[in-house]
Amino acid sequence: MIEVNGRQVAWHEGMTISELLGEINDTHPYPVVRIGDRYVSQPNFDKTTIPDNSEVFLISMIAGG
Questions:
Q1: Is 40 a domain residue?
Q2: How far apart (Å, rounded) are the C-alpha atoms in residues 42 and 10?
Q3: N or C: which end of the chain has fewer CB within 10 A?
Q4: How far apart (Å, rounded) are the C-alpha atoms in residues 58 and 65?
Q5: Cβ distance 31 to 59 under 8 Å?
Q6: Whether the predicted pLDDT of 15 surpasses 90
Q7: Order of strands across the sheet with 38-41?
Q8: What is the number of structural domains in the chain?
Q9: Inside any domain, residue 65
Q10: What are the b/e assignments for 4-38, b being 16+ CB within 10 Å?
Q11: Could you tell me if 33 and 17 are in contact, meaning their C-beta atoms sit under 8 angstroms apart?
C-alpha cells in the first residue's frame, strides 16, 4: 500500500507515477509529485517508480498575484 494525499492506494511492483494517476482516475495536470522527500517533475512521471509504503503528494500548480 501507498498513501496518496492521505488516502490508501493499492501498490504493485514497478508502479510509476503515470500508472498511479491512471489507476486512481486522476486526470489533473500535476506539474510535480512528491514521493517522501523527493520531488519529481511531470516529464519524469513515466519513468519514476514509487516504492512500497511511500507517502505520495500530488502537487497542483498555484498561481496568483
A1: yes
A2: 22
A3: C
A4: 23
A5: yes
A6: yes
A7: 7-9, 2-4, 55-59, 32-35, 38-41
A8: 1
A9: no
A10: beeeebebeeebbbeebbeeeeeeeebeebebeee
A11: yes
